[in-house]
Amino acid sequence: MPLLLRRCLWCAAIVQFVVLLGCAGGPENNGNNSGAVDAPDPARMLRSGDAAGARHLLLKLSQRTCEQELMLSEASLKLHDTDEALRAALQARGMANDNVVLAHRADLAAGEAFLAINKAEEALAAFTAARKNAANMQDRDRATVCCARAELARGGVEAARRLRNEILRSDIRELADLDRRLAQVEKPSVSPVIVVPGPQGAANTQLLRRPPGKGLPPPSVHARSTWNARPIKLRNEPVPMGKVTCVTVHHTADPNGLPAASFIANAARVRAYQSAHQDTEKWADIGYHFIIDRQGRIFEGRELCWQGAHAGNEQANLHNVGIALMGDFERMKPSEAQSKTLGSLLGWLVKEYSLSWSVVKGHNDVKRAYMAKGTSCPGKHLATLLAQLKQKG
Ligand SMILES: [Zn+2]
User: For residue 259, what pLDDT is reported?
Assistant: First the structure.
């Protein structure tokens, strides 16, 4: 089925969560209680970046309100006076009493101060409290980002990833930073080495990041780096694959006739699929996990550690490996090399993830199971090949 016409439901669902940023909540108290019109205002100074000026004013006060303690904590943190930042945050927390909004802000401030002095456990406790007393979904998501940062600081990469996946809104400012940190620290769960062969495939050794299986060596795959893949767009909320329970086979149905034979030409073609999926469809990455060209080369598509976008909707994509063969198999037959490679890739997936051959299907069969309309994908000739492979398997 033509690549550009498919839409993935979970991608569309994200749009529903994108709501305009509102006021972060909290009373409009600027902390200036002097009543004088021209008196310097620490809140305004903080907003304009004058942390030192704001701090100076706040420290001169003989008594400070909860709001002023919060400002003092923020200004002190900016000036790397972590002791004062923590003291003021804890003071504010004590003064907040039953005011949930102030308590939430004080817990966040205390968490930041604890993080600044490398007390990740204490930071996590404070952020967790802030998460519990969040007044709305946006505040809760923000606190969740903070919790994930604290988890990362104490080495809890998996816990941080779990928290990240609980965040529903994509308009949280701090999210990109968290995603960057996660991408830096996340390591492959299982790591058979894949050596890329072929004259133009470049001597490249790369780890295949995927859900844990039996650990059997996969067939040779041209890693993403060999076709100059762009990175996955983590802000488009890819879903972790979790486990593998089924496989769906597609054809690319390229309108431009037979794919070219050279590695470079086909690598460019794979890049074009990725561009279409990321730029036009707004997906996180290329939809398929593997692409097989006419010469039988396997290109690594979306990393197998992420759920794909190929079968039709979120349910259909769940734990589902997407394999696309280059060509239009309504009109042509898969080449011998292509057929052989498909057989070995499917054989590996079935063994590695202890699957029954019955869960290996053509796109049409999968789509009919989940949606009202079928598709001509993967084309009659590839459907025939698939039936033969399944029979042999
Ligand atoms: Zn398809």
Answer: 66
